[in-house]
Design brief:
Blueprint: E1 17-21, H1 23-29, H2 39-48, E2 53-56, H3 67-80, E3 85-90, H4 96-103, E4 107-110, H5 130-142, E5 146-151, H6 155-163, E6 168-172, H7 174-179, H8 185-202, E7 205-209, H9 217-223, E8 227-232, H10 234-243, H11 245-259
Parallel strand pairs: 1-2, 1-8, 2-3, 3-4, 4-5, 5-6, 6-7, 7-8
Helix pairs in contact: 6-8, 9-11, 10-11
Length: 268
């Protein structure tokens, strides 16, 4: 069995798991040649505060998370947090697959980033990308690694993702974040809900991430069915500047719990 996958890791009574992306911690560390803050210390901060897992997205230019960080986090989780999930994101056509082969994390998320891209800004186009992705999905799954595909909220594409062999999809949520608090919020949320329903009907698990924050997370989880995991990095790091990492993690977990509480007892 994969040592970084606990069978009960997501047996949380339907509650969405919180995976904290540590890219911004690495970006701060890289600004000075001091190895501060240490990336494994950041793992301990967020896991002690109640995070369910860790996400990293190493890019080929190592502008934030470096190859050594990925290896260090995997070893640290294995030794100190064996029930935590480790999710490694990236483009499988660039630098992701060596990490999958060497470390066999609990989950890998295939993201169609270009090498020079500042941040993820679109999901996979299927079926155009299917032929190139299929053998890599099969390889990762043969290693015992759950495969999630980063996807736009296109309901018709969910069946194609499942036909590729993916276990989950991660809904790219920037469009929702931009619409939150505007007259388009309900319309955009309905599209995400429809995509999630299509994914579930196809036999896929549903993750979500990108620009989710304390203001918009609860509304998203109440409207979109079956979200098993959210990956949050930039917004949580911004909140941590004021609150500290531990309190920021606790507030995100509280937002998740409140989203699933009965509406007449939920606290604002």
């Amino acid at each position: 069995m994969n040592p970084l996958v606990a069978p009960e890791a997501f047996a949380r009574g339907g509650r969405t798991a919180l995976s904290v992306n540590l890219n911004r911690v690495a970006l701060l560390r890289n600004s000075r040649p001091l190895d501060l803050p240490r990336i494994t210390d950041a793992v301990d901060w967020v896991m002690t505060a109640g995070a369910d897992g860790i996400t990293v997205h190493p890019r080929p230019d190592e502008r934030h998370i470096r190859a050594g960080d990925v290896q260090a986090i995997a070893g640290h989780l294995r030794t100190h947090w064996p029930r935590a999930e480790f999710n490694v994101e990236g483009n499988p056509h660039h630098n992701l697959m060596p990490f999958v082969r060497a470390l066999r994390p609990a989950q890998c998320t295939f993201v169609p980033d270009a090498v020079e891209q500042a941040t993820s800004d679109h999901g996979w186009a299927l079926p155009q990308a299917s032929a190139a992705l299929a053998p890599l999905v099969a390889e990762a799954r043969s290693l015992g690694v759950r495969v999630s595909l980063f996807m736009d909220p296109e309901p018709a594409a969910m069946r194609l993702a499942r036909e590729l062999g993916a276990d989950r999809i991660e809904l790219y949520t920037e469009a929702y974040a931009r619409a939150h608090g505007t007259p388009r919020q309900a319309e955009v949320l309905a599209r995400y809900a429809e995509a999630a329903q299509a994914a579930i009907a196809a036999g896929l698990g549903v993750n979500a991430g990108h620009d989710l924050n304390l203001d918009n997370l609860g509304d998203f989880l109440r409207a979109v069915p079956g979200v098993e995991e959210v990956s949050i990095g930039h917004a949580l790091a911004v909140d941590a500047l004021q609150l500290g990492y531990a309190e920021a993690v606790r507030r995100y977990q509280r937002a998740i719990q409140t989203a699933f509480a009965p509406r007449d007892t939920a606290t604002p």
